[in-house]
Amino acid sequence: MSNRFFTVRRLALTGIFAGIALALHVVEGFLPPVLPIPGVKLGFSNTVTLLLMIWGHPLEALVVLILRILIGSLFFSQATAFLYSLAGGISCYLVMLAIGKLLHNRYPVLISIFGALTHNAAQLLVALLLTGSPGILVYAPLLVLSGTGAGLITGLAAQFTLPYIKRIRF
Amino acid sequence: MSQQIKRTVWILTGVIVLLVLASVYMVFPQLRGLSQRNMHIARITEDGEVLYEIDLDAVDEPYTLRVDGKDGEYNVILVEPGKISVQESNCPAQVCVKMKKISTNTMPITCLPHRLVIQIYDHYMIQDDSVNDHE
User: Fold this and answer.
1) Interchain pair A117, B19: CB under 8 A
2) Are A148 and B16 an interchain contact pair (Cβ–Cβ within 8 Å)?
3) Which CATH number belongs to the domain containing residue A59 in this structure?
4) Which helix (H) or strand (E) holds B36?
5) Which residue from A103, A145, A148 is facing B8, i.e. has the nearest CB?
6) Which residue segment(s) compose the domain that B113 sits in?
7) pLDDT digits (tens, 9 = 90+) for B89-109
8) Dihedrals φ, ψ of B39, to 5°?
9) pTM listed for this prediction
């Protein structure tokens, strides 16, 4: 297969963005948790996924996402956390892609909120499957609220970064 | 085309607003006629070991607790309804005695030389008022 998609330029940019996403992911891990509930977090590295998806190429966003999850959980967490990350990340990616298509990639805040909500829903589902206790569903409303807030913030971050990202020729 | 996007935006925003409203309704039990009781638990630890756990809201009369260490050091802890403080200590700096009475989880009382920490934890209990009325 000829590498028509991954030109040298795109390969380099993908690497840089994977690095940025990883750095955001790690720095966020150092912050103290806002609420003592697992799963309530900002998800700042999702900004990178969103930016790449809209102003780069969706495939590039997917590569960066998977790289970030792989390297991120290899170094910084246990095996089960990888499963959560992957389920949350991939489903978030798919929903953001679909909503992005619907909105012609405008309104990044809306796209981001839906991504965050899906991410939380997928993680709750995995937790449900792993633990087999429906009791954890009491977290659902809290995760909706935290997801909306986190999606709003990361979406706004993506929107404010847009003018600078647009200068890059993908 | 843009008309169609506008409609999609409204629908999506509506979905989010509905989800958030439903969640707020579920997260805050007060809205459903249930009340939330905030229990203040004071945990007294020495050297990381939990010595006492006191429900400060259940205290009716003030009383004192004496915690003695291995080398003759001691702290006298005053437990009052809703608050807790150190009344007396034979540590040099007397930081723990000078600290105000605490009633929230913001600041723990620490007696560093005696490795004594008094921290208040919030414990939420959701109770159904309608059930309590029949008791």
Assistant:
1) yes
2) yes
3) 1.10.1760.20
4) strand B34-46
5) A103
6) 38-129
7) 998 888 889 888 888 888 889
8) -90, 135
9) 0.67
